[in-house]
Amino acid sequence: MARARYQVLVIPYCIQDGNVQFCLFRRSDMGIWQFIAGGGEEDDISIIESAKREAFEEAGISKTCNFFKLDTCCSIPANCFKNAEAIWGKECFVIPEYAFAVRVESAFLQLSHEHTEYNWLTYAEAHTRLQYDSNKTALWELNRRIALGMLK
Asked: What's the rounded Cα separation, in Å, for the pair 130 and 136?
């Protein structure tokens, strides 16, 4: 399957006894903490389907869970992706990254080879561990939406 010209970011979260926790994943290739991230594929029907596929592939999250598209969107330099010029051409300088949230009922996830571990953390703990500003912005938006009662 060919890689589509966008990226998705998925934030799993759970609420237990009124406490919100967010799941971060340690990348096996770089050792950094981030949310589920991956590229769209040309066979994906929509961007949200890409998010559901990535969440299932990387963490075993069911595609039937309630996914919510966040407003957060950023641009990632194309040179961050392996073979970007061969895939998208010389004229592709950046690709968009679309953020999603998914509420899960179980804190047990199944890791793919892309990650070595995962941790459920509070907002403050998660924000401190995250490497990328796009992840921090999406986390802030999701946390704020939950605090305002816009997501349950």
From this structure: 7
